[in-house]
Amino acid sequence: MKASQAVPPLSLSVVKEEPKRRPRPLIRSAGIRLAMVYATVFGLSAFALAFSLWYSTVGLLQRQVEVAVRNDGAALMDHFTVGGVSSLAVAIQNRLADNVDGDAIYLLLDPQGGHVVGNLDQWPVGLSMTDTWYELPVTRQGTASIALLRAYNLQDGYQLLVGRDVRARAELRRVLQAGLLWAMGIMAFLGIVGAFVIRTLFRRMIRDISATTRAIARGDLSKRVPKTGDGDEFDELAGIINDMLDRITRLMDGVREVSNSIAHDLRTPITRARTRLEDAAMRAQTKDDLRSAIERATDDLDGIVAVFQALLRIAEIEAGARRSAFAPFDAAPLLLDIGELYTAVAEERGIALHTDVTGPLPLMGDRELIQQAVANLLDNALKFSPAHTLISLSALQHNDTVGISVADQGRGMSEADRDRATERFFRAESARNTSGSGLGLALVAAVATLHNGTLILRDNNPGLRAVMSLPAQQAR
Asked: What is the pTM of this model?
């Protein structure tokens, strides 16, 4: 009865407040809520820090004063060296006359300690060492002040004092110290408050995400993050995580398929090599027979090594380890050289190779990997092309994309095979009796992806057309 009595007031309340909730979609956004918290907490912290850093420029002013005093002292000593006391006195008088800010301090004493020239009443108390910085109280023209000073011993017993009035900077430094302490305290307080608030919000908002990730960590890859249906950023995050988990599942399935393929494809050459060696050990009559068996077994093992090298190279490319070798280059000369090299290979097999490269083709990438990818495409075309057919290698730039195409007139692939052709160890039924490991197109696809490009396989009617599209290097 209590539950039934609570329903009408709740419904009435919703109806009454509905007009007031028009801006709710904006407030409902998790990004807006978090942005407001971050803006409030870290905005105040950033303001306090910036304010403190602004005052810290006093340190720069201090260094500038030291540089000015040091340079001024060196110049005055040069005057003394060249023209003696009279030249130095004139230089000091000129400096005092030209000192618009009135902060310059000079004092020249004779060997008996007598005042020669300068705007100090007496030698400052406590200044006893030369070539050392002092910040001391001084009396300048009857007015007490604070100065940054440096003394120099001259020949014949003369003493020179050079400095700048830093009373204003000393006051500013004291204010800065107090402001810095306050700013640090405010930042610490705001940091603690902000961390508590953000932690509370996140713990409440990502409870489902945490539960799903814990299940995934326990090995249950079937779990997915449920969506609230609010359409906010956390729903978007849930979708991204679910997509990631789907990709992980596909990758795990791919790893299992690759493992099965490796076991299947390598079992035959390993068994064949072992059988040949055993047969040679039992039946070889001469050294030539034994050497021949060993060479055939070595060829089988070299094929196995080549498969593993291709796998390692694909893994290296997919991990992005080769991005450090990226550099701008023109692909046109590279493709022309590859075409010239493979033209001779094609002629030996009775196949014509036509190269049509329209340059320049500016790319940013790994020149060696691009070369290997194109070579793999040409190798595949030659492998599956019968004699007296044509293979074409073409490349051109269209807008911001460089397209490299290799087309043959061989047996081609079905649409289903083309969809799986870039999988590792995949071999179409028509290619089962052809030599190879099924890694060539997988490597080409990995190279294209590394360069933010794509590999597309199309029907050439007859044959196969492989098109590798790569982003062109933008001119500066």
From this structure: 0.44
